[in-house]
């Protein structure tokens, strides 16, 4: 086997360190320039080395999506952590153990029943929890309706509880992924901030002061001109970006830092198609920006030098990817054993398929990073 990445067995995840450094530096400098606290999400990469790059080589506040991530990063010295998924009370014992060992572990809730479970546990276990109230800013996935009286009542109850510290309001403009251009993304960014700004103002009428207003999705954080009205941002995908982000205008294809190295394992020139050894368990089955291109396929197909090719991944099974040539007369140039690189549709899910990242710099393999896994 010859080629740039011959020592690597496929499928494999390649991470371009130079691009990651550029992406992380740009976002960090934007946060500093706008005087907002920077609490980047680590769920995209789940790797200690990249979390440090997000903070310029240092340790700083982070956002996680699983308790396993929180434990993993705490073991490496990250002690100011927000777990930005609505909290499940069955994890109270394990969570309390972690909370006692870090400076701060912010938990997210959006229901009175979860608050009751936390208070009951705290009272009998001599522990006090830091809580944020998740607020729906239009994504409609989770979070309280900021206009509803019961949401105000829940916030008042949190503020008055002896067993929790009510730290702030957290929202996520995930509907920015439905945008078709940067103008629509910017509208979501403005909405995201406006919702928590108004909700905090309403709670101040109830005597609740100094709540943090935490916002963030990669599209809104990239496109927003400023963050006036917010106190903290939590972008995550920007570290790698991906084909979806490029399609909606958040980034350029050249900003995508994570690619899947794969081998051609079947060639059928007469049918104008190829088979690769990267299937759903290497690429995930996340479709691309189908609201912009109904036939987006499962990633951007490139050669080893990351030059786009006239190929489209049109189907995935567990370990097989099926590619179709848009220029059938070039079928003969692709042979079994050739290597390709795929820019994935969703780098977060794709990265989660691999237990290690092959780090490249200037086209050479320079390191190997091992991310957190599990829940």
Task: Please characterize this protein's 3D structure.
- With 375 residues, the chain is an alpha/beta fold.
- It has two domains: 207 residues, TIM Barrel; 119 residues, Lyase, Ornithine Decarboxylase, Chain A, domain 1 (Beta Barrel), CATH 2.40.37.
- The protein is 30% helix and 24% strand.
- It contains eleven helices and 17 strands.
- The chain has an eight-stranded parallel β-sheet with strand order 2-9-8-7-6-5-4-3.
- Strand 3, helix 3 and strand 4 form a beta-alpha-beta unit.
- It starts with 11 loop residues before the first strand and ends in a 6-residue tail after the last strand.
- The mean pLDDT is 96.
Low-confidence stretches: none
Cα distance, first to last residue?
37 Å
What structural class do you assign from the helix and strand content?
A: alpha/beta
Q: Strand-and-helix sequence, N→C?
A: EHEHEHEHEHEHEHEHEHEEHEEEEHEE
Helix content: 25-40%
Major sheet characteristics: 8 strands, parallel
- The CATH topology of the largest domain turns out to be TIM Barrel
What spatial order of strands do you see in the largest sheet?
2-9-8-7-6-5-4-3
What's the number of extended β-strand segments? 17
Could you tell me the strand content as a percent range? 15-25%
Instruction: List the domain count as a whole number.
Output: 2
CATH architecture of the largest domain: Alpha-Beta Barrel
Average residue-wise pLDDT: 96
* Total number of helices: 11
Provide the CATH top-level class of the largest domain: Alpha Beta
Could you give me the name of the CATH homologous superfamily of the largest domain? Answer: Alanine racemase
